[in-house]
Write the structure tokens for this entry.
Amino acid sequence: MTEVLIDTAVRGSIIALLAVGLTLVQGTLQFANIAHMEFATLGGYIAVALTGAGLGLLLSSVLGVVIVAVLAVVFYRLLFRRLLGSGTMIALIGSLALAIIIRAVLQLVFGSRPRYLPTPLERGMDFHGALITPSQIRLICIALALLATLAVVLKFTSLGRAIRAVAANPDLADVSGLNRKRVVDVVWMVSAGLAATSGILLSIDSAVGIELGFNLLLPVFAAAIVGGLGSTLGATIAAYALAFAESFVLQVDWGALAGGAYHLEVGYRPAVGFVLLVVMLAFRPQGLMGRTVRRG
Amino acid sequence: MHLRRNRTRALGLAIPLVLALSMSACGSDSDGASTKKSALPAANSSLKGEIKIGAVLPLTGTNATIGKDQQRGIELAVAKINEGDGVLGKKLVVDIEDSQGTADAAIQAAKKLVSVGKVSAVIGEYSSGNSIPMQQYLQGQGVVGVNPGSSSIDLRSTGELQFSTIGLDDVAGKFTADALTEKGYKSIAILAPNNSYGTGIVDSVSAAFEANGGKVTTSGLYTEGQSDYRQELNRLKDSEPDAYVVTTYGKDGTVINKEIFELGLTDKPVFDIYMSQDVPDADPKSVEGRIGMDVNSTSADGQAYADLYEQTYGENFISSFNGYAYDAVTLLAEGIESAGSADSAAIAAALPEVSKTYAGVTGPVVLDADGQRSEQPYVIAEVKNGEIVPQ
């Protein structure tokens, strides 16, 4: 069982950092940014390039996050703001195009071989019968600290209030004198920064590849939708719940019910996200924390 | 007004692209730089005209390292042939297309070679999952196919125009099982990728090992491209075998090897099938002391070839697969020479006969009734100081 919990904590953290950003952008701009996953891949590769240039791992990681955050704002101002002018569906397709371009460019520059961040190979430590590596402990702690900070900022600061106001009712926010442009810039920066952090943490734990972000598309979207689009708390809870469900379904000896021994093939892991998504959409389409807004 | 808006919009699309390009260019390294030490010999100037064959290799994608090595084998073979008498007095040209490591792109590439290039034979690919559909396509087009890297036993039934210069998994599985039994392991747990290569190797090793009186505690098939394989590895560990048997490649191989170390699976023997597929990409510490089997990259008299490779590229073999590509080109050239024409059916008829006397750089390549290599030298090796050293 400890194995399941460790697995949940690691995978849930990675998914949560991405899902929270996705849901923030969705909340403020009403469009699902498919290129969001690529911010994670970009973060990993930028960190690899910086460590390759001789910078330390910590400095490279921080710079990687900052560069991706700035880049995201640039993407928003030059690309997405224009596309959003033509509708959210256009912006969604545009983000898919951007995702493909980013992957192609990364492959062109870095090649298709996996890259690593220079971290020492560490033997896992025994933790109540399951093994956990120091880098995984760091991953979980950093993710939880960032998610907690985000929650505090959204809840208790004026910036957080502004973001929530823009998300709840953009027109009203405008009328009340909020600087909507600035709020949206901050949202992009924060969400891309979190995505890059997730990508770098995952790169430290395994390796960076072109598909790093793309492979997380399904669980991240599932977590964001199950959590209720626009709700960061919902996305966080859903991310960890999804990771738990994935891990639990694989650990359970389903054969024992019938007297045999049968474990579900690990290849079915992504299906868990789908099932969760379908069940949620069928019974609670607004998601865990989503609000149904009555219009008219 | 309308015009201006369009222009700024186009600008909006172009700038992120340029930015992305210039930004990521900062991270570029010496990967693309040429490491060639000495140039390949020039072609014999008396050769008139060209004989063209095709090759489909994974030059990009997960198996790009292998594809690059296969390409080197082809380059060396072509240079050797054209330095001499060529084929039928003509210069041999191999058109190489990228399969991107996917079945879809492999077939598209083969289509281009067949319909545009009008080639009579196509060499390729590396993954069985790509080679099988490609050979099926080639068979349908009446074009000869030569597989220099895949080992699924399904390649036996792709048709009478299809051949392999590498031994298939039934041969490799038996060899592996015998080696495991000889090392005294009573039980093994197997991990392989969930594709036609992986299922084939799991079946052939399991069958042969159980026939030797051993027990397979569990066999896991992993889905490629995941960020983490702890679930799969923990299942292997929980089944408590005498030894773990793994076969993996590409990015997955790197992650799996890292996690094998982290999870402490290296406390027991880890036996690696086709070691050179994953060991070169792994963190050296994670695979130190690992034992395994691999195809023999050169035969006893293949030393001259190994030297030529090192002279040309300034490094030792980066995988074991360049030699099979070399043999594929050379065998085809001899087949065309013997058939007296570049007609596909004539080549296919000539190949089995030519193969009987052909001395390949990877050893004798005698093709059996299915057009498959019937003899295959394998080696048992161990990783010492990060290098694969034959035992």
Confidence is low (pLDDT under 50) at residues 1-34 of chain B. Chain B touches chain A through 55 residues (CB under 8 Å). Chain B has twelve helices and 14 strands.
